[in-house]
Amino acid sequence: MYELGRSKRASHAYSFDDVAIAPARRTRGEDEVDLTWKIDAVSFDVPIVAAPMDSVMSPSTAIEMGRLGGLGVLNLEGLWTRYEDPQPAYELLTQDCDQVTATKRLQEIYAEPVKPELIRDRLAELRQADVPVAGSLSPARTQEFAPILEKAGMDFFVIRGTTVSAEHVGGDNALNLKEFIYNFDTPVLVGGVATYRAALHLMRAGAAGVLVGFGGGTTHTTSAVLGIEVPMASAVADVAEARRDYLEESGGRYAHIIADGATGRSGAIAKAIACGADAVMVGSPLARATEAPGRGWHWGSDSYHPRLPRGQRSFFEQVGTLEEVVLGPSRVPDGTMNLAGALRKSMALTGYTDIKSFQRIDLILH
Amino acid sequence: MYELGRSKRASHAYSFDDVAIAPARRTRGEDEVDLTWKIDAVSFDVPIVAAPMDSVMSPSTAIEMGRLGGLGVLNLEGLWTRYEDPQPAYELLTQDCDQVTATKRLQEIYAEPVKPELIRDRLAELRQADVPVAGSLSPARTQEFAPILEKAGMDFFVIRGTTVSAEHVGGDNALNLKEFIYNFDTPVLVGGVATYRAALHLMRAGAAGVLVGFGGGTTHTTSAVLGIEVPMASAVADVAEARRDYLEESGGRYAHIIADGATGRSGAIAKAIACGADAVMVGSPLARATEAPGRGWHWGSDSYHPRLPRGQRSFFEQVGTLEEVVLGPSRVPDGTMNLAGALRKSMALTGYTDIKSFQRIDLILH
Amino acid sequence: MYELGRSKRASHAYSFDDVAIAPARRTRGEDEVDLTWKIDAVSFDVPIVAAPMDSVMSPSTAIEMGRLGGLGVLNLEGLWTRYEDPQPAYELLTQDCDQVTATKRLQEIYAEPVKPELIRDRLAELRQADVPVAGSLSPARTQEFAPILEKAGMDFFVIRGTTVSAEHVGGDNALNLKEFIYNFDTPVLVGGVATYRAALHLMRAGAAGVLVGFGGGTTHTTSAVLGIEVPMASAVADVAEARRDYLEESGGRYAHIIADGATGRSGAIAKAIACGADAVMVGSPLARATEAPGRGWHWGSDSYHPRLPRGQRSFFEQVGTLEEVVLGPSRVPDGTMNLAGALRKSMALTGYTDIKSFQRIDLILH
Amino acid sequence: MYELGRSKRASHAYSFDDVAIAPARRTRGEDEVDLTWKIDAVSFDVPIVAAPMDSVMSPSTAIEMGRLGGLGVLNLEGLWTRYEDPQPAYELLTQDCDQVTATKRLQEIYAEPVKPELIRDRLAELRQADVPVAGSLSPARTQEFAPILEKAGMDFFVIRGTTVSAEHVGGDNALNLKEFIYNFDTPVLVGGVATYRAALHLMRAGAAGVLVGFGGGTTHTTSAVLGIEVPMASAVADVAEARRDYLEESGGRYAHIIADGATGRSGAIAKAIACGADAVMVGSPLARATEAPGRGWHWGSDSYHPRLPRGQRSFFEQVGTLEEVVLGPSRVPDGTMNLAGALRKSMALTGYTDIKSFQRIDLILH
Q1: Where do transmembrane segments lie in this chain (chains A, B, C, D) (predicted)?
Q2: Which candidate from A13, A99, A221 shows the least CB-CB separation from B335?
Q3: Which residue in A125, A260, D6, D72 could disulfide with D50, CB within 3.0 to 4.6 Å?
């Protein structure tokens, strides 16, 4: 604890940029590394979850993500459930213009109401492909659409907001998370969360996994607008302790940690796991895939809030197919392609062969 | 304390950029958040004070600020009290030109003497609108114009300089602050101040509130010119302890803390209060309002000193009405619109419902 | 140790940029400074090793490097052993183009297989010049080409990879380093290595010297891609302790430390030795020599990996002959010419006359 | 002390940018501030010494500097003592060209030998004006030109090099500083020096004052070329302790500290004195004066070393007369004009009225 001033003390928190993975005394062959991530009844080849952002996830890219061994999550409050045909909306949102105009367009296009029948139809489309099905809602609208979700038969339901707590008090559409999860058949992944205590409460509420961070590291401006910030390395390392404590107090329930924010480079993905994450949720690298519906433009749900937008639309040059982005081969030396291969290499060079043991590696601050 | 060198030790001080608000385990509905700020007999809907800078405050914008629920402060040593018609001066000061020319023009235009009768007339204009009335002077000229002020019937009188102390020794027009406040009917807000001890002395001199910081964070160059700097997070947290100690030693007098500097983004406003401030004084976001007399150009009283200018004129794109800047809705994701809404959201996401309790939130260093 | 988060602690590591050489109370004449570096049976006038990068080392520049008093190392898996005539390849790789195209070309050109007979011929060419002969291979291909190397009669054999350990487990072409070195006549320099423990194991495996760092500081992107980083000042200072401990446990075997990374300015070369290195391996300053085969373009073996490239091709303006770069005179004030003269000056100004004692100088953090 | 790595520890040192002057509880009128600096028999109105750099000091600007109340120092190894008429050299050195060409020209122009008779004549010219006379030489040439200096009747002789020690061993033209000063009538100011111990030795050798730092902060590249760096705040604070210890051990001899480096803004000048300096040596702000012989171009003696240049020629826009730069009024808000006025203001705002007491002010780290 450091003294901020006479009336206040503060602890230091670190971002992924503040830490680095240090090679140890042993190295391994890459072919010995196993990236498998098992959560609930599902096993994934790679511990990578695609963020429910309209710029990267359409029904078809969500399916492709599953085929590549990861998990695609469709935004159930996004363009695909507001518009029967979202292409005209994408057309408008992928034109070059200044940030003020971009924000205005986002606010207008997302003013269109979410249609329950489109939630149903989009999930059915995912269901037909033989991949794990996942969709996301904000906490405020979860209760409203829960009945549709229950009939849809998803593998994972993601509740995702800037900050989601198990103890939300008051407000419209307030969600009693514990009760909701108890009554809901599908495993729930929920976040953002940033601290040991908040994460422990989410775990106790029955979350199968928690999203650590606020997502959209590349695009969000939460710090400038709200003053709220989550240095990710410390947040993940804090929540990892909550996972351990909950495992003990629950007599064996392992709540997964999904790092969701500032994970846009493969190096940061490796660091997230080295800090204790089981998997990562990524956005911007997928925006670089030729199949991305945003055609290189990237935005999150923070960017179209009607009264307080907190995200910028950004552009990324497209570099290859979604498969190349996730599994390689890479053609760019900047950590945005072959995400799985880079994680594998990082583990091999430091002598680890599975995710769980890699979580224990020593890190350095620099 | 760190050792600077063998002969000197120094303590570490932190700016708003060095700290962040960390979400806790509870969240609240935004409609439960109360932003009310009560000082003396007046209650404000939002804890936001407009800085007495000619670029943002004219009589009409000062009145509008009051109508929006905050406090507008007119610079009583500025264009409006030097010129019967300040529009030609504004015309010159809002033309694009290099910094050297801009400084020369500022020095020339502000060489015009302040007219006592204009102080009287401008305050009368504010008085007629049904909003709290406030005006500001520098310490050096307070004594001179005090008689006019007393007759004007203000709600708050602001004494604002780079550094104002309760123990000024020597110099022309030296002000005995304690005596002045004792004899002056209107509550006095006074600063800048940056340390526990200096603030405690101002409180003991009878200040209803102290301005922490030097104002004009966006435009001033005090650090380059004077070597003086006030990392705001530490300054506010230090002075908050002075408020607590003075409350005890005075048997219940609560001196308000107004953070005045580096508060140009809504995120920083939230941090200022999280460090212990009761309210904030803002300048640059208001320069972005379409009603701002500076038309996007922004300058403070530091910038026109005749022998030692210490501020730069800056330009900000105008983004919406003053109401939109203060109360929203926002159309930009950078923390310069919907200042009150952003503060409300920040408090809701961290589970706080009023300013006093939000002052106690834990912060992190990053 | 700092607390990253509740579940993890980390130690702080420092780069060359974080440290500085502090003048002491004594100065020396430059003519009293002796830069001699003795390793195995060979004595070098300057403790500078040219990195085995195709952009700087051809057979002729490797020879010239030896003539200047340093050590040139030829990349035995590079253009000179893949192509009988590498000039067309150099032609393609030294054209201006964007990074994506550059990476694609590098991957294509280095897809050509390495020819054993070319390894033999190139080493023979070096042998004929009367300078120390050194070549390098990656660990994965060392075993395969070992028989050719043994016949070639080198003075030093360099095994160089991103991270090389004495305990590599599994993978194709896995190298048992200890056994290899035991059976191999030529002294082996091996790395990169970054930690005390890993370095100690390499020393115990019989390495005559270890390369500390990952090389190619100017061009590699290991941090962005793998999350792995080696703040060099700390790495060298850590490994220097391994050298001391190994010296004692082996009863007198002195394993040399060659700093290999972030040593592209003469100031950093001085810092590397001040941290404990016996010599440095440099790349980018040599790319600025008019004789450099890369004609100012610079790339390392990281940049052409077929599935996970981790380096960028960079351009440096050519400033003088290789002799001027290494021994001066300098015509640029940026630390990229007269490397030996700058080291000599740095030692003289701080009062040291030989490499071994300069390793003990006090440094400061800033 | 921090652990750099297992074999090495290092202490932390701070630059002027790392520290700030914190206002205290008292303020003063500016007219109460006394900037007088007394050294030996001479009293200066302002504690500002002009650096012996050809870009700012000609005989006429050195004289003007004295008339303004400071001390001008002429470079006795520069253009004015190499050329009877230095104007053609200035013509060449003040043309716009790239850095490589600039360095080449500097090396060529300064290859011209220094003429003893010109040293004599230039000093005589200064002598005729009724101001304190000072000139500088490098340590290597001090012995050679000493006889001329003795006859010239200077008030101060400055020996200035990158690092000057009282215990220089070996080299051509080695200077026995203690003996030299003992036999030399004029008070000697000598540096650069950066540490307590080195400074104490210079004081014991009889220096009337020591120059702390390496000068030419704006232009020199000592860090990139030599790895040597002197974070100025710590250096001055360290040497201030040497002054105190020497005062005691010598029974009352007060050796002056002149901060020489990174003092190019008035804010840094105030910080230098706040760290313990008695006066500052400045270069770049003077290059902005219309009278500066370099016409805005600025270079130091580091920049023309024949084999290892360590400085860049830089350009500064000219802003006013030398008088305006030193004594104001200022027309720019960046700390490069009205240096004395800014120092006066800084002291007044923090409640100090003389240099000696201002040396004891508390600083903060940020």
Answers
A1: none
A2: A221
A3: D72
Residue A116 in tokens: 């329950």
Selected residue of C228, C239, C298, C303 to mutate for chain A interface (largest A Cβ count, 10 A): C228
The answer to whether the CB atoms of B195 and D24 lie below 8 A apart is: yes
Structure tokens given for A359 = 């979580």
Does some domain include residue D204?
Answer: yes
Q: Most distant CA pair in chain D: distance in Å?
A: 61
Q: Which residues from chain D sit within 8 angstroms of residue B242, using beta carbons?
A: none
Could you give the number of structural domains in chain A? Answer: 1
Report cis status (omega within 30 of 0) of the bond before C59: no
In chain B, what residues touch A4 (CB-CB under 8 Å)? Answer: 14, 19, 233-234, 237, 275, 363, 365
* Distance (Å) from the alpha carbon of D2 to chain B's nearest alpha carbon: 13
Interface test with C, best of D3, D6, D246 (most C CBs within 10 A): D6
Cα–Cα distance, A88 to A109 (Å, whole number): 10
Partners of C72 in the β-ladder: C50
Q: Among C7, C11, C308, select the one facing A330 at the smallest CB separation.
A: C308
Determine the residue type at C232. M
Strands A37-39 and B363-365: unpaired
CA distance C361 to D1: 15
Which residue of B244, B266, B351 is in closest CB contact with A225?
B266
**Residue C264: strand, helix, or coil:** coil
Q: Is C244 exposed, middle or buried (0-12, 13-18, 19+ CB in 10 A)?
A: middle
DSSP annotation of A311 reads B
Q: Is the dihedral of CA A122, A128, A131, A133 positive or negative?
A: positive
Is there an interface between C and B (3+ Cβ pairs < 8 A)? Answer: no
| Angstrom distance (rounded) from CA A53 to CA A303 | 11
Answer whether residue C292 is part of any domain.
Answer: yes
Q: Where are the beta strands (DSSP E) in chain D?
A: 2-5, 8-12, 19-21, 37-39, 42-44, 48-50, 71-72, 74-75, 134-137, 156-160, 188-193, 209-212, 256-260, 279-282, 297-298, 314-315, 363-365
CA distance C34 to chain A (A): 34
Which of C1, C3, C7, C9 has the highest number of chain A CBs within 10 A, making it the mutation to test binding with A?
C7
Q: Between chain A and chain B, how many beta carbons pairs sit less than 8 Å apart? A: 204
Predicted TM-score (pTM) of the model is 0.95
- Does residue B9 lie in a domain region? no
Indicate the residue of A29, A244, A268 with minimum beta-carbon distance to C227: A268
Q: How far apart are CA B234 and CA A2, in angstroms?
A: 11
Q: Do residues B214 and B162 touch, judged by C-beta distance below 8 A?
A: yes
In a domain, B3, yes or no: no
- Of the candidates D349, D120, C107, which has an alpha carbon nearest to the alpha carbon of residue B140? D349
Which helix (H) or strand (E) segment holds residue B98: the answer is none
Token pair 């490994």 in the structure block, residue: C239
- Farthest CA pair distance, chain C: 61
Q: Which domain holds residue B331?
A: 15-365
The tens place of each residue's pLDDT in chain D, 366 residues long, gives 899 999 999 999 999 999 999 887 789 999 999 999 999 989 999 999 999 999 999 999 999 999 999 999 999 999 999 999 999 999 999 999 998 999 999 999 999 999 999 999 999 999 999 999 999 999 999 999 999 999 998 999 999 998 888 877 666 667 899 999 999 999 999 999 999 999 999 999 999 999 999 876 666 788 999 999 989 999 999 999 999 999 999 999 999 999 999 999 999 999 999 999 999 999 999 999 999 999 999 999 989 999 999 999 999 999 999 999 999 999 999 999 999 999 999 999 999 999 999 999 999 999
Predicted confidence (pLDDT) per residue in C4-27, tens digit: 999 999 999 999 999 999 887 789
DSSP conformational letter for D187: -
Residue C352 belongs to domain with CATH number: 3.20.20.70
Is residue D232 classed as helix, strand or coil in its secondary structure?
helix
